[in-house]
């Protein structure tokens, strides 16, 4: 059974002699860079979710696959847990280290090993930045479709770990839909190949299982990605609304017309003003909400779809619809959206970025209820999200220096995620569960489902040495927090020990 992740986790793990482990790493793996002083370790104590911090025992930075294998073999031998980290841009605490564990940083495996424009594929190491793949493919008229807002910094290995999406995932899919093969290292240092460059492979689809597994099943060391031809024509429409619910309803109406935009994004007034002050994207700052809708494809098809979308937007209550005049304006429109998170960071000492997914038809209802929860908890919420696929990113604004505000922000975030589950959605769309959402997993899944998840984890990592305490809660934890459903007034899981 996996370990309960809380402030006591490192007390549950076996104590490791730091200097002995450091000596073994240096002696057994020549050329391996190991960080061990306080000054070296502090920069790695959190990922993009900085409210949760833990200084690692040691940080190792391998330069090749063989060093990764050697680290895993040694860690397995001495019984020290390993947490893998990419660029550290994750927003769920998935790469937060353990005080009694090794942090395995994959940033130096950052080479594009091969790019085949005829086959439309590229083989890359996990430390390659997302945007660098498209930049390398650009001379051939190709690109890599998934484009998280952090694509300028995030690494493809982290994208695989979290099954990242982006503003164009509505039409082109998530990471799992855009990769063909993975090379992974197991907890015991074995090397596996999952998937293939062919259209299908025999056996279970283990590549899909690893995608989104948050470093709990193995360490990804190579990814083969699909490259797509750049569409001949791309147009972006910006629609402004005087009511958030009208904008939300418009999303479902566009999809109902049989149109699948390349991207369909929504921002409310707080995020609009923040982004405009920061980027000068040309957003209408008096609007209560805007929709960004990108249509791509053949010229005639795009022209037809743009006219139909524009008609739907006005009929649904849009005050104004603007079509980007040229590529520069199209890029400005998207720059505002992709910089919304840092823009909101300029208007609040701290913010808590949530990630939940709901059915499109529930957008208006969930936005209304989120506004009510914002009032109840006394914290502002800015909404920025992938409206086309219902992936919401409420940004909860707070000040960690004010007593109780962080706790209120966490409680409000939990309520928003539970609201997503209530309407038939899920607690994450692309950020993962990590440390942040582990309590809400108790709401999302029942005991049989959680036991099944633990069985899968045990098949790959029987001693729970890979990223322990993340993603999948123990049944004890769910019973303690009361997250499991109570049937007929009975105490849930009476057989579980209470602490």
Summarize the structure.
The chain is 35% helix and 19% strand.
Overall description:
This protein is an alpha+beta fold. 35% of the residues lie in helices and 19% in strands. The strands form 4 sheets. Strands 12, 13, 14, 15, 16, 17, 18 and 19 form an 8-stranded antiparallel sheet that branches. Helix 9 (244-256) packs antiparallel against helix 14 (363-377) and helix 15 packs parallel to helix 16. Residues 1-8 and 485-499 have low confidence and may be disordered.
What key phrases describe this protein's structure?
499 residues, alpha+beta, 8-stranded antiparallel sheet, 19% strand, disordered C terminus
Total strand segments = 19
Radius of gyration: 23 Å
What percent of residues adopt helix (DSSP H or I)?
A: 25-40%
Beta-sheet strand percentage? 15-25%
Low-pLDDT ranges: 1-8, 485-499
Q: How does the overall form come out from the CA principal axes?
A: globular
How does the major sheet shape up? 8 strands, antiparallel
Blueprint (SSEs and pairs):
Elements: H1 9-12, H2 18-28, E1 33-35, H3 38-41, E2 58-61, H4 65-78, E3 82-85, E4 102-105, E5 112-116, E6 121-124, H5 130-137, E7 142-143, H6 156-162, H7 169-172, E8 179-185, E9 191-195, H8 206-210, E10 219-226, E11 228-229, E12 233-241, H9 244-256, E13 263-268, H10 269-279, E14 289-297, H11 299-315, E15 320-323, H12 327-338, H13 340-345, E16 350-353, E17 356-357, H14 363-377, E18 381-386, E19 391-398, H15 405-422, H16 438-444, H17 447-460, H18 475-481
Parallel strand pairs: 2-4, 3-4
Antiparallel strand pairs: 1-2, 5-6, 6-10, 7-11, 8-9, 8-10, 12-14, 12-15, 13-14, 13-18, 16-19, 17-19, 18-19
């Amino acid at each position: 059974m996996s370990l309960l992740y809380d402030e006591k986790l490192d007390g549950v793990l076996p104590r490791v002699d730091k200097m002995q482990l450091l000596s073994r790493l240096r002696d057994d793996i020549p050329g391996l860079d190991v960080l061990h002083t306080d000054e070296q370790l502090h920069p790695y104590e959190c990922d993009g979710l900085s409210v949760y911090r833990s200084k690692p025992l040691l940080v190792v930075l391998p330069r090749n696959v063989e060093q990764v294998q050697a680290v895993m073999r040694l860690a397995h031998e001495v019984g020290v847990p390993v947490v893998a980290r990419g660029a550290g841009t994750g927003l769920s605490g998935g790469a937060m280290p353990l005080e009694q564990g090794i942090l395995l940083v994959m940033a130096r495996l950052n080479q594009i090993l091969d790019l085949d424009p005829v086959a439309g594929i590229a083989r890359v190491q996990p430390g390659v930045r997302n945007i660098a793949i498209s930049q390398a493919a650009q001379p051939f008229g190709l690109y890599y479709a998934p484009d998280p807002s952090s694509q300028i910094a995030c690494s493809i290995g982290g994208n695989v770990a979290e099954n990242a999406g982006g503003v164009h995932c509505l039409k082109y899919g998530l990471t799992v839909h855009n990769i063909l093969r993975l090379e992974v290292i197991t907890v015991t240092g074995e090397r596996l190949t999952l998937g293939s460059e062919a259209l299908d492979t025999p056996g279970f689809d283990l590549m899909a299982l690893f995608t989104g597994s948050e470093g709990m099943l193995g360490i990804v060391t190579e990814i083969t990605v699909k490259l797509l031809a750049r569409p001949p024509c791309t147009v972006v429409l910006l629609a402004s609304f005087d009511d958030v619910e009208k904008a939300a309803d418009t999303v479902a109406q566009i999809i109902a017309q049989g149109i699948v935009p390349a991207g369909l994004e929504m921002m409310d007034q707080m995020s609009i003003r923040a982004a405009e002050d920061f980027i000068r994207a040309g957003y209408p700052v008096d609007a209560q909400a805007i929709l960004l809708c990108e249509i791509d494809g053949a010229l005639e098809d795009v022209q037809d779809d743009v006219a139909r979308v524009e008609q739907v937007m006005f009929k649904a209550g849009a005050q104004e619809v603007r079509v980007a005049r040229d590529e520069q304006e199209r890029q400005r429109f998207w720059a505002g959206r992709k910089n919304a998170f840092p823009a909101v960071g300029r208007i609040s000492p701290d913010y808590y970025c949530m990630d939940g997914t709901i059915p499109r038809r529930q957008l208006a209802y969930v936005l209304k209820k989120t506004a009510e929860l914002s009032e109840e908890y006394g914290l502002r919420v800015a909404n920025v999200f992938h409206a086309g696929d219902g992936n919401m990113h409420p940004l909860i604004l707070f000040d960690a220096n004010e007593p109780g505000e962080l706790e209120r922000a966490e409680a409000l975030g939990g309520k928003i995620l539970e609201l997503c589950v209530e309407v038939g959605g899920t607690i994450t769309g692309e950020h993962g569960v990590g440390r942040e959402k582990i309590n809400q997993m108790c709401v999302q899944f029942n005991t049989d489902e959680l036991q099944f998840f633990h069985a899968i984890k045990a098949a790959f990592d029987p001693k729970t040495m890979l990223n322990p305490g993340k993603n999948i809660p123990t049944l004890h934890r769910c019973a303690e927090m009361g997250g499991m459903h109570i049937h007929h007034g009975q105490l849930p899981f009476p057989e579980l020990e209470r602490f």
